[in-house]
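I have been asked to look over a protein record a colleague put together. Alongside the sequence sits a line of tokens, each denoting a local backbone shape. Please read both lines and tell me whether the tokens look consistent with the sequence. Take the sequence as given and treat only the tokens as open to question. I have pasted the whole thing underneath without changing anything:
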Amino acid sequence: MNKLQSLTGKQQRAVLTRLLRYAKPHSKTILLAFALLLLTTIGDVTGPILVKIFIDDYLAHGSFPFEPLLLLGSAYMGIQIVNVLISYFQLYKFQEIALKIIQQLRIDVFSKVQSLGLRYFDKTPAGSIVSRVTNDTEAIKDMFVSVIATFIQSCFLLIGIFAAMFLLNVKLALFCLLVLPLIMAIMVTYRKVSSKFYQDMRERLSQLNAKLSESLQGMSIIQVFRQEERLRQEFGEINEQHFQAGMRNIKADGLLLRPAIDLVYIFALVMVLSYFGISSFENPIEIGVLYAFINYLDRFFEPVNNMMMRLSMYQQAIVAASRVFDLLDDKELAPVQPLDSKNEIKEGEIEVRNLSFSYDGKRDVLKNIEFTVGQGQTVALVGHTGSGKSSIINLLMRFYEFDRGNILIDGISIREYSAEEIRKKLGLVLQDPFLFYGTIKENIRLHNEELTDQDIEEAARFVQADSFIANLEGCYEHQVVERGATLSSGQRQLIAFARTIAANPKILILDEATANIDTETEEAIQSALAKMRKGRTTIAIAHRLSTIQDADLILVLHQGEIVEKGTHQELLTLKGLYYKMYLLQNGLAEGLKDVVS
């Protein structure tokens, strides 16, 4: 659906119906709230009738008996006091239900985000997703808290008011029914006009969040390349578009909400007064009935005005809910693994058979990839940027689904293992590790309660991270800020190594894992990696060929294909692409000229 097109009436009803399903678990509380609402409505409708009795039966006749008037006055005041108390509990219950519904909806949305495949995040800005989880659900909360409760309360009150009107004067009550089509016409017109504007506003707000998120994450690059003015202009343009959409909403609200309803109210008031005025020529009018009708008319338009003023919130909430449901209905899920699989990764032998893959369904980034990694062996993937190295890792880690070829671990398709088994037995260290807000210890443990503090310290010692951790304030309790910004690239990488080693994976996957580590630290890490690889199957992506010379097998990729394979010495002997890369990295330009010639 085009996000700048208005939702049709059918689509809006479908979204509302789906939202109301979230209220089903709270049906008992809702029934209690409705019962309280019914009582408050009875109290609101009874008040003017008691005043009418006082005017017509006592005031008009100049008769003021003490006991009947005391009883009448006590009944009136008692009803008002009880009404206030019941109204409080009724509103409390409705808001409690609303907050519980939004609480569950946010959990559902966040859970859905966790289950989405990386394809979704490749095409959707992070700020846009944040906007749906926060801003859009907040708009839905406003609807449940302010709109639905008000609409239900207003409907109860309107029914009660019309019932009282018919009891007082059937003919005049029928005349008053004439205003209902006018009110419905205003509501329908407002819905059609405002829906597109609110859709536009939500999209612009989403774009604002996306631009803000991107700017905050890339602040260092923005300042280094002096892009502040450009970003200000881009943000200002989106902000202006959001402002213009908001102004269009205000114009629609200003015309079709309170002013239009006030006009209908004046029409109804003139009609009631005209009726009583004409009737007075034939029969004396009852002042109490006149008072009651005008009072009911005023009370009738009060809930109508409340509903109309909340129509804007309703429209925003429906548009926001449609965006949230778009996310909940997205089919770009992470590859599904069987939940009840008993298969276990024991040896760690990997076999890739005739594997081809495309991110967009049009251009293959991997073409007929085939190789085998024996238990405890190390296979290195090398090649220029865009050759497909990381894509192999992405498929092996089940970040993306593939439809051609297969990947087997211990002779069983990777699709036949549970997600828990894959995550437990495959350890990944990326070139740019991500650290969470928390302590060093928490970042290594990652809430794995099976790991003791001693296990964490041994893992850090194993990867040579204990020396710098000991110098931090609080050592393992040192607070890591967002993304580990106060730590060096090498320190973040060492923590990532410790995190992986602590989990004790059967298969180790290194994606340029030593790229951000200085030469001295890298020597220590290479020594640690040599110990880590014993008994573990290892796949390593490397640009620095010096780090993978001892690999059992090196695969050279070019444009998604394996063009060379062999050990370091065997590939040098071939004097092909690997040999050229080796000469370039070692500054042997003369040797490369000989190869080219």
About this structure: The mean pLDDT is 82. The longest strand covers residues 364-373.
